[in-house]
Specification:
By secondary structure, this protein is mostly helical. Helices cover about 65% and strands about 0% of the residues. Belongs to the dGTPase family. Type 2 subfamily.
């Protein structure tokens, strides 16, 4: 692998919290990726909501398919920029491990339940999963990932929490938030690949669901631009094969955003004059869209927020998920013996939050039905 001088070099990693003998056939970041893929938390992503709940259709994105798409986009961009593809892939595959069932509604409900107990935030929970909650090794809890992978997973962190993390782990992943430093280019890239993936593919799921139409999306300049290109190249495709038309529009949108990130980032790297991975930490963020693409992406996000994420049908189902999370939390707090023995920690509220956050949508539904004797989704039909 030919790495640029400012890429993260696995031979120069800042290491693991527990020292290990290097693997004979894999780099440290490849080893991290493999540990993530084989984790229980990664497998559970297949039944965790992206936008549409799992029971609503077999072809909608889940947290797992979304994570795979982020990894693919991230690797493509990393290869063109000379960055470490394996680190990008590891961060991409792990970035949503801490997400609750029922998408952001579940996260918001769990955060409300945890007020007075430190709150809940899925980025920190993803780090908590790989640091503590996975139980696979006899010597330690967690997956014992490299600093660089863990840093990429924790992409946001309030100062108070960063201070706590720094006190627990001096020089660890919380320190950059206190010093105003940037993460690696690979971490910056994965964050942007996440945005590219969910914007484009939420369009696809929105149209597949019937909540959005291709005609409606003409109001979004970024979509309309590439729809016009497809019309010019394939005049009968829109009316004759609308699914194929939509796929081609989204393909072109994705490609253009990828090329835009590559070109903009190359220019920023040259202007900043960074010569090492350590130099990257002292600069402003370097991986980004151009200003025009940034504005177009923001406009698309606003459109999806208004017309898809806040669509009455989506809100109705996610509100049920929100209620389930609240009631599960109340039930376990009132009767801790309902928790499996390994989830009865000394910090009772946090133990309950960890257990609920690890649930898939369908397991949460089964547990709620077991504890309350009713099926909220069946009652809503």
């Amino acid at each position: 692998m030919d790495l640029a001088p400012y890429a993260s070099d696995p031979a120069r990693t800042r290491g693991r919290r527990q020292a290990e003998t290097p693997a004979p056939t894999r780099t440290e970041f490849q080893r991290d990726r493999d540990r993530i893929v084989h984790s229980s938390a990664f497998r559970r992503l297949v039944y965790k909501t992206q936008v549409f709940l799992n029971h609503e259709g077999d072809l909608f994105r889940t947290r797992l398919t979304h994570s795979l798409e982020v990894a693919q986009l991230g690797r493509s961009i990393a290869r063109s920029l000379g960055l470490n593809e394996d680190l990008v892939e590891a961060v991409a595959l792990a970035h949503d491990l801490g997400h609750t069932p029922f998408g952001h509604a579940g996260q918001d409900a769990l955060d409300e339940c945890m007020q007075g107990h430190g709150g809940f935030e899925h980025n920190l929970q993803s780090l908590w999963v790989v640091d503590r909650l996975e139980h696979r090794y006899p010597e330690w809890d967690g997956l014992n990932l490299c600093f660089e992978t863990r840093e990429g997973i924790l992409k946001r962190c309030p100062l108070a929490l960063a201070e706590r993390l720094e006190a627990e782990e001096p020089g660890g992943v919380g320190g950059r938030f206190l010093r105003g430093q940037q993460p690696s280019l690979e971490a910056q890239l994965t964050n942007l690949a996440d945005e590219i993936a969910y914007n484009a593919h939420d369009i696809d799921d929105g149209v597949r669901s019937g909540l959005l139409s291709i005609e409606q999306l003409q109001d979004v300049p970024l979509f309309a631009q590439f729809a016009g290109m497809v019309d010019a190249a394939h005049p009968t495709l829109r009316t004759g094969e609308p699914r194929r038309f939509l796929a081609e529009v989204i393909r072109r949108m994705l490609s253009q955003q990828v090329y835009d990130v590559i070109d903009t980032t190359r220019t920023a790297l040259a202007k900043a004059g960074v010569g090492s991975a350590d130099d990257v930490r002292q600069t402003s963020p370097l991986v980004s869209f151009s200003e025009d693409m940034k504005c177009a992406s923001a406009e698309l996000k606003r459109y999806l927020f208004r017309h898809l994420y806040r669509h009455p049908q989506v809100m109705a189902t996610t509100e049920i998920g929100r209620t389930m999370v609240r009631e599960l939390f109340a039930a376990y707090r009132a009767a801790p013996m309902e928790l499996p023995p390994e989830h009865r920690g000394s910090d009772a509220a946090r133990a309950v939050a960890d257990y609920i956050a690890g649930m898939t949508d369908r397991f949460a539904c089964r547990e709620h039905r077991r504890l309350y004797g009713r099926d909220l989704f069946a009652l809503a039909d």
